[in-house]
Prior knowledge:
Layout: E1 4-7, E2 16-22, E3 25-29, E4 39-47, E5 50-55, E6 60-68, E7 71-74, E8 87-95, E9 98-103, H1 112-120
Parallel strand pairs: 1-3, 2-4, 3-5, 4-8, 5-9, 6-8, 7-9
Amino acid sequence: MCSSSARKGRWRPGARTRAVSVMGDITIDLTEAVFEQQVTEITVTSVLGNVEVLVPENVTLRGYGSGVLGNFEVRGEGVAADPQAPVVIVRGFALLGNIEARPKRGSRLVDLAAKLRKHLD
């Protein structure tokens, strides 16, 4: 409560992640994440807090949620992404809080295996 938390850098998000913010701030930055599954689902609850989810530009982003005296917003939804790219689904409820999911400009998911093969050839 009344604090902040951030998950960023190189990490492996699970197929399901849950975040709860009560009078605090949470940042979930997936721009450098290594996706081990096709679909990653993030469930968010925000009460008097702020939650921000950042994804690479070429990941498909979907959102399902609502806010009561708060805001639930998913930007970049429906933007055509690579059909092979991971899908991030954000489900959430904001009560007097804010939940925002959006692509981070200039950030793109890179196929590290293909990059390594190209470098070795």
